[in-house]
Structures are given as structure tokens and as C-alpha cells.
Amino acid sequence: MMRENERSLYPLRFEPQVTDTGWGKETLLIGDLGFAESVVVNGWLEESSLEDILETYLERVVGDNVYSYYGRQFPLMVKKISVTGKMPVTVCPDDRTAEERYDTLGKFKLWYVLDAEPGSRLEMGFSRALEASELYERCQQGSLEEVLNHITPVKGDVYLIPPGLVHSASDGVTLIEITESSDLDFRIYGSQQPAAVGFTPEYEGIKNNISTDVEELSLEAAFDFIDMGAYDPALRLRERGQYRGRTEGNKAIAGRLCSRDEMDVTKINLCDPLNIGNDMFDGFIVYVAVSGQLSLQVKLSDGRLEEHIVNAGEAILVPADVQEYYLVPRKTGTVLLEAVTRRSEVADAYIDPEAEATLPGEDYEGTILN
């Protein structure tokens, strides 16, 4: 009889976890943060957490290279964010800062605009370069809004949010957020509190899950990694045909949104069925349906196809164990985001290769394609 851990893995769906933030709702679609983690809702792994699955199946979930770098930490997180009020102005650290201070990952983000009501707004960086003293004074006096870079979001727009970039959203914008698996969001300025925000109740969990003494996630703690330069417009990718991507036959089907050490994210306009071999990625793949409806079909050993339906606003994780599958549109206008992590550990002669894998601690440089 085949042991359970020898059974083939399959595309995993998870129970959405909704948090009321006070300024809207955040829905965790895929993630493993310890105090908040995704639980499977389909197949024989139903009711298993993502953490439990990684503990049991290791590199069969994420792939050999990803596992060698991240160990049992699933490296990506996917959320759906519905903003009805005013999100606090937020900034995130890079991996080196996060690892040195908090023994966790930093946070690069990608925002995809699912919907934007009239009057909705994003704040991305500053309209001009600031001195540190001016930033601090404006946060204390309640005038930071005057120097933020205000953007009117458009459905289908993509925003790259590197570590250090201040950002916020307000008044009726709905986003898909793909990030590193971290909850290090420093809320430096809020509509109700012009001074440093610090911890809010819905994010209190992080204080109990970081192994070192934690300073508040506030302006003072974030000061040394905030990018105080003017906003770079190249970080905004527009919908109208300028994505650089791959083709299927003579038809452009996808556009690369970003390619960084932390993640690769590609947009796929799924007009016709696509046959995907997992050897293209050498690891796990996450798909998020941003419009339409997807049928992800896995070819079983007996030749049958096992179908998994993903609706708009939902996500699915394809483990490295799944070697071949098909992406089939079930509705006109089906659009997907495809997210992978390619980063692998660099060999170090002073490190025991038999030692248990841990979180990353090396610096890196990323490349943005637009």
C-alpha cells in the first residue's frame, strides 16, 4: 500500500480569511504567517494548513531550489484588498533590514487594480524629494498628504511597490496584492492619527510571532529605510498593451510584470487552452484569476483530466509535484496573474550543507521589467 506522503500532490485551493481593517477588508487567499495561515479546502489534504503541508512534503511543494533557500517558509502571500475608507500610509523594509531586526522576510509588493470607483485614489511615493526633517515634521503636523504623489487608479493597472516606497489607497479601490510572505507593514501616517501610527489591533499578532524584541511598526522605526526621493513613474504599468511577454504561436498571450529575486509575476490573457509543463518553472506556481473563470486541468496517470475551477478574485497553488496541466478559459475575458519564486541559495564553504534550511539573510538586487 502506498504511504500517504508518497501520494501525488495536486493544485491546492484555500479557505479565504477575511479581516476587517477599519478602512476596508483584507482577504488572505494564500499565505503562511504562523498566526495567520491558509487551510486547504479541496482533495485529500482538505483541512490541512499550508504550514503542515510544507512540513510533510517539503520540496515537493515548492521545488528543490526554493526549498534550499527558504526552507519551510512559503515565500509568497496573496491577498485581495477592498478599500472603502483611507488606508494608513505604509512602508515596508527590504530583506536585509527585516532579517537583521526581526528575523523574517522583507516585503516587495505588486498591486493589480481589480476595480476602481470614481473618486478612488492611490498614494505612491512623494511628489518631490523630501529631507528627513520635513518628512518627520509633516507626519507630526498632519500635512503629509500635501507632498504625497496622488494617482487615480484604473482597472487593470499594475503598481510595483519596492521596499522603502510609501503607499496607500482610499475610497473604493479593489486590489490583488502579491507580496513576500511577511507582515512587516510599517504604518507611518493615518487619517485619524497624523503622528506615527504604530501597531493596530488587527496586526497585533506579529508581535507574538517574531523571535526578537520588537519596536513598534511606526515612523521612527522605518525612518532609515524610507525612500524620500520623488516617485518613479516606471513603477506604474498601464493596461494598454505595453507588457513585455511570451507568445503562443503567433499570438501574444502574456506579459511580464516584474522579474525580481523575490518573485516573477506574469499576466496571461487566457483566450485559448494552454498546456503547461512544470519544468518551465522548476518550482511551485500560483495563479490568481483577476477576471473571467479558469479551469485548471491536471493530467492523471490513467490519462483522465482532473478539473479545478478558479473564479475571478480567487487563487490556486500548483505544487512542484504537478508535472503537467492545462489552463482553459471558461469565460470570455479570462485574465490571470502567474506568480513564481526562482531564487535559490548560493553555496557557502563555511555553511554545513546538511544543516536545516533557514530564512534568507543575504542582500540582493532586483530587476524590474516594464
What does this molecule look like?
- With 370 residues, this protein is mainly beta.
- The radius of gyration is 21 Å and the shape is globular.
- The N and C termini lie far apart (51 Å).
Please give a quick description of this structure:
The protein is mainly β and 370 residues long. It has helices at 50-57, 59-62, 64-70, 95-102, 132-141, 219-222, and strands at residues 17-20, 24-30, 76-83, 89-91, 109-116, 121-126, 148-151, 158-161, 167-170, 173-180, 186-189, 236-237, 247-248, 251-252, 254-259, 264-269, 274-277, 285-291, 293-299, 305-311, 315-318, 324-329, 335-340.
Bin the strand percentage.
Answer: 25-35%
Q: What is the overall shape?
A: globular
Structural category = mainly beta
Helix content bin: 10-25%
Order of helices and strands: EEHHHEEHEEHEEEEEHEEEEEEEEEEEE
- The overall strand count is 23
* Total count of helical runs of at least 4 residues: 6
Over the alpha carbons, how many angstroms does the gyration radius reach? 21 Å
The overall average pLDDT, rounded, is 83
Largest sheet: 7 strands, antiparallel
Low-confidence residue ranges: 1-5, 191-215, 240-245, 346-370
Distance between the termini: 51 Å
Strand order of the largest sheet: 1-2-3-10-5-8-12
